[in-house]
Specification:
198 residues; Aminopeptidase; 6 strands; alpha+beta; 5 helices
């Protein structure tokens, strides 16, 4: 589910003083599951463990799982979209885009992902974090994985100095709306408007 368009021309950068400047951590011998993407090393991020899941930045090797899970949940195959999104986030590496995946801490199985970024000044909005997509395996929905992914991306937003997270939800997507309300989100000050272009 794509919740927000991604236009490089419209995206504003945060001032340098609001970005995290952390020293690079030393690489150590780790298992493939614990190995962080280059973005994590560059920004000082480490994989996060919570509720039996390990959350880390996406790697190219994860794309097949992302594509398959998205198709399973949405019923739409979008491999080109996911490859393009990965390449864009991987190429920019400015520390304001987040594509996180989660794996079961014990089995190591891929369980879900979340995508978001910090955006600023569009529609008069001060810098805030946007969650574009969150998808988890149906069998993990009662294990707190959605909450774990949401908390992880919100922690990254907060670390970069923003104080608010936003998203958009289809009016008839009751499960997703209930999820976002359960994690503390509520109606914001904006109204989405649209027009069909015949």
């Amino acid at each position: 589910m794509k919740l927000r368009s991604n236009s490089a021309e419209r995206r504003a950068k945060l001032p340098v003083n609001q970005r995290a400047h952390q020293p690079k951590s030393r690489r150590r011998a780790v298992t493939p599951l614990q190995d962080s993407h280059a973005t994590a090393v560059a920004t000082g991020l480490e994989p996060k463990q919570s509720a039996g899941f390990l959350v880390r930045p996406v790697r190219a090797a994860d794309l097949a799982e992302v594509i398959a899970l998205d198709e399973q949940v949405t019923g739409l195959a979008k491999p080109d979209y996911w490859r393009s999104l990965f390449q864009r986030y991987d190429r920019q590496r400015d520390g304001q885009q987040f594509f996180l995946v989660a794996a079961d801490e014990v089995a190591g199985a891929f369980c879900g992902f979340i995508v978001g970024e910090i955006r600023a000044w569009e529609f008069g909005s001060t810098p805030c974090g946007w969650v574009h997509t969150i998808t988890v395996r149906p069998e993990t929905r009662l294990r707190g994985l959605g909450q774990t992914l949401f908390d992880a991306i919100c922690a990254d937003f907060k670390r970069l100095g923003v104080a608010r997270t936003r998203t958009m939800v289809a009016r008839d997507d009751r499960p997703l709306l209930m999820f976002f309300r359960a994690v503390g989100m509520m109606a914001g000050p904006y109204i989405e408007l649209e027009k069909d272009l015949d």
